[in-house]
Amino acid sequence: MRLNPFNTGNIKVGSTGGAGKAGGIGCGTLVLAALGYFIFGADPLQTIGMVEGVQQQSAGPAPANEDEQALCTSNQYATETCNALESLNDTWPVLFEEQGIGGFRQPTLRFATSSRFNTGCGAASTGMGPFYCPADETIYIDTGFYDQLGRMAGNGGDFARLYVVAHEYAHHIQYITGLSGQIRSAQQQNPRRANQLNVIMELHADCYAGVWAGRNRNLIERGDFEEGMAAAAAIGDDTITGGRVSQESFTHGTSQQRMEALRLGMETGDDLQCDARYFG
Fold first, then answer.
1. How far is 25 from 127, CA to CA, in rounded Å?
2. What InterPro entries does the database record attribute to this sequence (predicted)?
């Protein structure tokens, strides 16, 4: 995907601090939730909210931003991620404006620079993969994860990596629009449907990731669509678990479901179609 070099004035980027106790949920719960369900491109709070009924925690002071230029040019993956974030920051406010929705605000991007680190949601580790923390409205990325994604998806294309960023950004959109809070409330009221609701939430985020790509169709290159489909197929619950987990225990959807969600967003470029499909 052809993305313009990032403009540091349009993004908020930093790196993670060291490990230790932080406000929110303990590290053990956070890591268990991520590893036990979906460590690839996950939003661990979705699982934590389902298992423990945890409410959003108030974030402590965020680490001071470091030099964005240095962070975003530290390696190829970091540059790609910053470019994706800038594009997402340009795309989603337009969607909000078109629909007369207020309250848009950008998330922060933080690169994991240590194996364990603090977040507004508690202590975390790089083994969890990328995730979004609503308490500090931050996307956490360990760029080393992208090599693992490439092995899983069977390709090293950049669009598969950008899809991950767009998926986590979608969780931010769900949070600031109040959708994730509604789902969390529904999970608490009906625990038996918790997994099912989580799957819907994740497929909706996949669809939103596709909307971003569809809205930037002029930047799509040959092979990007196939890279996205391969990534979605590689990180379905059925593929990751090798069929060892029943569908009732799925939290993100099957490979086929994830591919269909991404395809819907990409082909329509319309977030309202995603809303109708998964919450209509």
1. 17
2. Uncharacterised_pept_Zn_put
d(CA 81, CA 116): 21
pTM above 0.85, yes or no: no
Dihedral-angle region of residue 3 (phi above 0 means left; psi in -120 to 50 means alpha; beta otherwise): beta
Q: What is the pLDDT of residues 150-198, one digit of tens each?
A: 676 555 567 888 888 999 999 999 999 999 999 999 989 998 888 888 8
Give backbone dihedrals phi and psi of 112, rounded to 5 degrees, phi first: -75, 120
- The helix/strand count (H/E) of the chain reads as 12, 6
CB 109 within 8 A of CB 82: yes
Cα of 83 vs its chain's centroid, Å: 16
**Looking at this protein, which amino acid is placed at residue 197?**
L
Which uninterrupted H or E stretch holds 266? helix 255-268
What burial class does residue 262 get, using C-beta atoms within 10 Å of its C-beta: 0-12 exposed, 13-18 middle, 19+ buried? buried
At 120 the three-state DSSP class reads coil
pLDDT, one tens digit per residue, over 188-231 is 999 888 888 888 899 999 999 999 999 998 888 777 777 766 66
Handedness of CA 146, 152, 155, 157 (dihedral sign): negative
Phi and psi at residue 33, to the nearest 5°: -60, -45
Say how many C-beta atoms besides its own lie within 10 A of residue 280's C-beta: 8
Q: Which residues contact 141 (CB under 8 A, 6 or more apart)?
A: 81, 109, 110, 111, 112, 130, 165, 168
d(CA 163, CA 178): 23
